[in-house]
Amino acid sequence: MRIDVISIFPEYFAPLDVSLMGKARAKGILDVRLHQLREWAHDVHKTVDDTPYGGGPGMVMKPEIWGAAIDDVIAGGEGLPRLIVPTPSGRPFTQAVALEYAAEPWLLFAPARYEGIDSRVMIEYGSRLRLDEVSIGDYVLAGGEAAVLVMVEAVARLLPGVLGNAVSAVDDSFAPGAMENLLEGPVFTKPPVWRGHEVPEVLLSGHHGKIARWRRDEALRRTLRTRPELIERGELSAADLRAIES
Ligand code: ADE
């Protein structure tokens, strides 16, 4: 997968050299290309922002500079990327969206600073390619860069060959299928007793059916405790209902 990021802080993306993302890049699964937005600014100060029409606090990123940058990046590839603009006013980024993006050959992220990008940029590219304005949560970051890191990591770990064990992604919280709308339950490793705390016996039993049932029950109980709004009782089996009612 090719991922381009245009930002005034390309150095913000240094963590993409580390761990799973670093390995995915080294293996050629992930081709990340960082671009300095200011390279498309032509005045001496490399200005990328200006005061908002209508007044108000803060600055707005200039459309001509984003337009030139996006055009050039698009011209340097085949086909059209999916353009993703992180913003707290976007649609929520979820595991389902991560899966959708993981199926794309090319993503272009346009993280903004200040009060955001002149809205005509979204109008222009919304009519030329698939554009998503996406929020990673109901809080306001200082800029979209951290949101891009979050999204790239969530997407890249779903690409074939990135996770050591592809089955890990299947059991994830929110993963489509059995874990849809469920949070993953507790996990344990050796030793069997630590500071007097024992690993639940069923996990040592070797009985795969019982272990699967126990894990689902724990996931249901945890979800009920911390995110009750995720539980749709109508979609639960009798055994599921017993778990959350006990
Ligand atoms: N930029 C600032 N806050 C953001 C958020 N919550 N999600 C995505 N981009 C953002």
TrEMBL record:
GO terms, molecular function: tRNA (guanine(37)-N1)-methyltransferase activity
Q: Which GO terms describe its biological process?
A: tRNA N1-guanine methylation
- Pfam families under this entry? tRNA_m1G_MT
Reaction it catalyzes: guanosine(37) in tRNA + S-adenosyl-L-methionine = N(1)-methylguanosine(37) in tRNA + S-adenosyl-L-homocysteine + H(+)
For the ligand (S-adenosyl-L-methionine), the binding residues are 136-141
According to the entry, every stretch annotated as the tRNA methyltransferase TRMD/TRM10-type domain falls at 1-232
Gene3D superfamilies in the cross-refs: 3.40.1280.10, tRNA(m1g37)methyltransferase, domain 2
Give yes or no: UniProt keyword Cytoplasm: yes
Q: Does the keyword S-adenosyl-L-methionine apply?
A: yes
| EC number(s) stated in the UniProt entry for this protein | 2.1.1.228
Example GO CC term: the record gives: cytosol
Keyword set, alphabetical order: Cytoplasm, Methyltransferase, S-adenosyl-L-methionine, Transferase, tRNA processing
Where is this chain's protein located in or outside the cell? Cytoplasm
UniProt family annotation = Belongs to the RNA methyltransferase TrmD family.
Q: How does it assemble?
A: Homodimer.
Q: Which HAMAP family match?
A: TrmD
Task: Tell me the function of this protein.
Answer: Specifically methylates guanosine-37 in various tRNAs.
Q: What is this protein called?
A: tRNA (guanine-N(1)-)-methyltransferase
Biological source species: Herbidospora galbida
